[in-house]
Amino acid sequence: MHDYLFFIPIAIALGVGVISPGPSFIFVTQTAMQKSRIHGIATSLGMGTGALIYSLVAIMGLFVILQTVPILYLVLKIIGGLYLFYIAYSMWKRANDPKIDTTQGETSINQHGSLGKAYVLGLLTQLSNPKTAIVIGGIFMAFLPDRIPDYSIPLLSMMAFIIDAGWYMIVAIALSTSKAQSIYTRFKKTINRFASGLMGLLGLKLVFNQ
Questions:
Q1: What is the reported pTM?
Q2: What pLDDT, in 10s, does the model give residues 125-146?
Q3: pLDDT band for position 102 (50/70/90)?
Q4: Which of 32, 65, 99, 166 could form a disulfide with 176 if both were Cys (CB 3.0 to 4.6 A apart)?
Q5: pLDDT, average across residues 10-21
Q6: Which residues, at least 6 apart from 108, have a Cβ–Cβ distance to it below 8 Å?
Q7: Which of helix, strand or coil describes residue 104?
Q8: What are the boundaries of each domain within the chain?
Q9: pLDDT more than 90, % of the chain
């Protein structure tokens, strides 16, 4: 069992990274408050899947390519930034929509779209930032031993999924309560436009930050 002790610092580093506010946090927050708890959870699972994919990418060493081939990294950053701009535009546009019925259940699911769409949007939002692969890759480079024990790759990837999805599920559940929904309904335009502006700034930061 002691062969797997290196999982502990990796888990801590991944946990610290995931709780830092960013595009994923904003998107989960918006989904949970504007749509429903179940949509927020579906989005969280998409976020976790994105973390799992980036973990596999990092372990296989592909993140090194992003570091050593600047043009590829630049292209991915621009694509990711454009996607965040699209999300920001969608949030701004929805600010003027009529106030929503925050009732949970089948009617809410039908009203706000499929859970599959919420999952895919969560996944795309997570994958929109190639810097995530660099961060995860850096964590693995810092803490992985020279020879990793059996099953480490699937276990590390699943750990990244659990940490990421678990955190965003907590956020989704906390912000989909009746009180949170009521606050959102009252200040819908302000909240959406603030989140839209913040998402747009994160998109700019992604594209232009070195």
A1: 0.74
A2: 888 877 777 778 778 877 877 7
A3: very low
A4: 32
A5: 84
A6: 35, 36, 38, 101, 102
A7: coil
A8: 23-208
A9: 21
In whole angstroms, give the CA distance from residue 36 to residue 42: 10
For 37, the token pair is: 């708890």
| CA 9/CA 143 separation, integer angstroms | 7
Alpha helices for 60-187 (secondary structure H): 62-68, 70-94, 106-112, 115-127, 131-143, 152-174, 178-186
Q: How many CB atoms lie within 10 A of CB 51?
A: 29
Q: Which amino acid is at 139?
A: I
Cβ contacts of 35 within 8 Å, gap of 6 or more: 108, 112, 113, 118
From the number of C-beta atoms within 10 Å of its C-beta (0-12, 13-18, 19+), residue 14 rates as buried
Run of H or E including 202:
helix 188-208
Q: Which residue bears the tokens 């454009």?
A: 82
